[in-house]
């Protein structure tokens, strides 16, 4: 048995509060998942993530496969043990990262041959290999290997990408079902195993998105993700694709929108019925001095904050806003201090996680 998902409350607009029971964690949904690309949410220690209320984080299959390698991680007990994170974990399939290496990859029906961005070495990812790597990493949730469609893409390109994604989804599922009990922690959680989500693709074509969703549902995955968004398309188009697919996905399984978005977007999607979201934006923006606050976006590098003794966000009670001033955070940025990225990231993650906490409470006031 992999995951169990229970819907606790629903709204007329489609929003819902639920519980996602995973081997390592019961996750309260809707949930925002911080991205830990190489086994770390950049600049933020795991104990701080716990303090902030993070329930589940992401690991990146492509990056962890290249360094330090999935087999060493397996021998050390899996990714949970390796990074000292005993809570929820999800790994992506590596498909999006391989997609981003457009000049360094060759796609065939069998899989994708690519060159490492680290040293130029050649590697070959198939759906089966992606499953083997994710099983070795041992996340609670793995993702099917997919082919991400770029934007813009004409219809013939989107159709070909969808053809590959559907074929690879079936191969991912078959291989995962045959081998998922080989996760490193199989003896720790008797009767529990890793779950696998299918990924809806189809570019920016509604009918292809519907076809993708319907075919994946027939395969009966543990959950369903909407991928291929936030690849440069207008925000309105992102919303159209989510609105088209979401009602088609099974109500009794978790729904995950990958790689989104800004604070107002994640709140909107949660109120539409999206259960899970992730994005690198909170930490990436933080490293460039952009803070998300109740008063809007704040570029802490601005000269106007040089002597501002107020907190980054007067309405925020995170550990950064309780202790540090805007002037100090600006000074850290100006001085190029590593602490700058840490403090800015902590605040932004607190802001994102706080949004989900408020949405969950509003969807289920008794909770």
CATH homologous superfamily assignment of the largest domain:
Queuine tRNA-ribosyltransferase-like
Query: What portion of the residues fall into strands of 2 or more residues?
Result: 15-25%
* CATH classification class of the largest domain: Alpha Beta
> Which stretches of 5+ consecutive residues score pLDDT under 50?
none
Overall residue-averaged pLDDT value: 96
CATH fold-level name of the largest domain: TIM Barrel
Q: In angstroms, what is the radius of gyration? A: 20 Å
Structural class: alpha/beta
CATH architecture of the largest domain: Alpha-Beta Barrel
Number of domains: 2
What kind of assembly state do the chains in view correspond to? single chain
Instruction: Compute the number of strand runs.
Output: 16
Shape: globular
Query: End-to-end span in angstroms?
Result: 27 Å
In DSSP terms (H or I, runs of 4 or more residues), the helix count works out at: 14
Helix-strand sequence: EEEEHEHHHEHEEEHEHEHEHEHEHEEHHH
Helix content estimate: 40-55%
With strands numbered from the N-terminus, the spatial order across the biggest sheet is: 6-5-4-14-13-12-11-10
Structural description of this entry:
- By secondary structure, this protein is of the alpha/beta class.
- The protein has helices at 46-52, 61-66, 70-75, 79-82, 95-100, 127-137, 155-179, 206-219, 235-245, 263-272, 281-287, 319-323, 326-335, 338-363, and strands at 4-10, 16-21, 26-29, 31-36, 56-59, 88-91, 105-107, 112-115, 122-125, 141-143, 195-200, 223-226, 255-257, 276-279, 290-293, 296-299.
- It has 2 domains: 4-279, TIM Barrel (Alpha-Beta Barrel); 281-367, no CATH class.
- It contains 14 helices and 16 strands.
- The strands form 4 sheets. An 8-stranded parallel beta sheet has the order 6-5-4-14-13-12-11-10.
- Strand 4, helix 1 and strand 5 form a beta-alpha-beta unit.
- Helix 6 (127-137) packs across helix 7 (155-179), helix 11 (281-287) packs antiparallel against helix 14 (338-363) and helix 13 crosses helix 14 (338-363).
- The model has no long low-confidence stretch (mean pLDDT 96).
């Amino acid at each position: 048995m992999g995951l169990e998902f229970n819907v606790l409350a629903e709204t007329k607009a489609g929003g819902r509060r639920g519980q996602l029971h995973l081997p390592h964690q019961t996750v309260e949904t809707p949930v925002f998942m911080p991205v830990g690309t190489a086994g770390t949410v950049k600049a933020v220690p795991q104990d701080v993530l716990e303090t902030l209320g993070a329930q589940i984080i992401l690991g990146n299959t492509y990056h962890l496969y290249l360094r330090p390698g999935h087999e060493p991680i397996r021998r050390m007990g899996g990714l949970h043990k390796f990074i000292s994170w005993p809570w929820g974990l999800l790994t992506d399939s590596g498909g999006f990262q391989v997609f981003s290496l457009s000049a360094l990859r060759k796609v065939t029906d069998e899989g994708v041959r690519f060159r490492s961005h680290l040293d130029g070495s050649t590697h070959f990812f198939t759906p089966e290999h992606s499953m083997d790597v994710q099983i070795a990493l041992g996340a609670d949730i793995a993702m099917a290997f997919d082919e991400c469609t770029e934007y813009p893409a004409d219809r013939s390109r989107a159709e070909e990408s969808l053809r590959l994604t559907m074929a690879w989804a079936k191969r991912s599922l078959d291989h995962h079902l045959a081998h998922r009990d080989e996760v490193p922690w199989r003896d720790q959680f008797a009767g529990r195993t890793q779950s696998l989500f299918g990924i809806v693709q189809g570019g920016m074509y509604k009918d292809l998105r519907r076809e993708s969703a319907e075919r994946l549902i027939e395969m009966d995955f543990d959950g369903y993700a909407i991928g291929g968004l936030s690849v440069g398309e207008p925000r309105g188009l992102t919303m159209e694709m989510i609105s088209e697919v979401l009602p088609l996905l099974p109500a009794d399984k978790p729904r995950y929108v990958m790689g989104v978005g800004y604070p107002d977007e994640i709140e909107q999607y949660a109120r539409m019925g999206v259960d899970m979201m992730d994005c690198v934006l909170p930490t990436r923006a933080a490293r460039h001095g952009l803070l998300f606050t109740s008063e809007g976006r704040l570029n802490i590098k601005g000269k106007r904050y040089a002597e501002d003794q107020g907190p980054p966000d007067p309405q925020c009670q995170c550990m950064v806003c309780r202790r540090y001033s805007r002037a100090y955070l600006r000074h850290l940025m100006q001085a190029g201090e590593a602490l700058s990225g840490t403090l800015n990231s902590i605040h932004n993650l607190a802001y994102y996680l706080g949004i989900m906490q408020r949405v969950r409470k509003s969807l289920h006031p008794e909770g």
